[in-house]
Specification:
- By secondary structure, the protein is α+β, with helices and mostly antiparallel strands.
- It has a single domain, classed as GAF domain (Beta-Lactamase, 2-Layer Sandwich).
- Helices cover about 30% and strands about 25% of the residues.
- It is built from four helices and six strands, in the order ααβββαβββα.
- The protein has helices at about 5-15, 20-35, 75-80, 135-150, and strands at about 40-50, 55-60, 65-70, 85, 105-110, 120-125.
- Strands 3-2-1-6-5-4 form a six-stranded antiparallel beta sheet, sandwiched between helices.
- β2 and β3 form a beta hairpin.
- α1 (about 5-15) packs antiparallel against α2 and α1 runs parallel beside α4 (about 135-150).
- It binds methionine sulfoxide.
Length: about 150
């Protein structure tokens, strides 16, 4: 099953209408995303809790590591650079943090609020190699902008 991003965006909009609590929004987004696509084996948020530090937020899938400094991993790279990380083969990513040995590819997107602050990253891992495309990244980013309000730093 592959995500129908248009349908997902409509469903998430309906579920999150008038909701401002970030944790509630993250929990809803990762639940809907995770169950929409067979490629998504781990779906979750890492929240910015201090300068240069991420902590796990709502997620679906096996346990994830609790803290990630901006200096480490694919999530740290997304937070540090403020750019999408599209990783076709995690073995090729220096410093990749393997929360599951089955992970083969990954996409991580920065999450911005309406003020243009980085509030989290969205991490999706797949046990399939090269599972994610630029189109996936663009569609996922559009949903994040719809829900959290920001398209980037101000
Ligand atoms: N792979 C991520 C770490 C998060 S666990 O995969 C859920 C990284 O390298 O930052």
């Amino acid at each position: 099953m592959r995500a129908d991003y248009q349908r997902l965006a409509k469903t998430i909009r309906a579920l999150t209408e008038n909701e401002n609590d970030e944790i509630a929004l993250m929990a809803t987004v990762c639940c809907e995303l995770h169950h929409s696509d067979d490629r998504f084996d781990w779906t979750g948020f890492y929240r910015v809790v201090a300068p240069d530090l991420l902590k796990i937020g709502p997620y679906q899938g096996g346990h994830g590591c609790l803290q990630i400094p901006f200096s480490r991993g694919v999530c740290g790279a997304a937070a540090r650079s403020g750019t999408v990380q599209l990783v076709a083969d995690v073995e090729d990513f220096p410093g990749h943090i393997a929360c599951a040995s089955s992970t083969r590819s990954e996409v991580v997107l920065p999450v911005w609020n309406r003020a243009g602050d980085l509030i989290a990253v969205l991490d999706i891992d797949s046990d399939q190699p090269a599972a994610f495309s630029q189109q996936d990244a663009e569609q996922l980013a559009a949903i994040l902008t719809q829900v959290f309000g920001g398209a980037g730093p101000t």
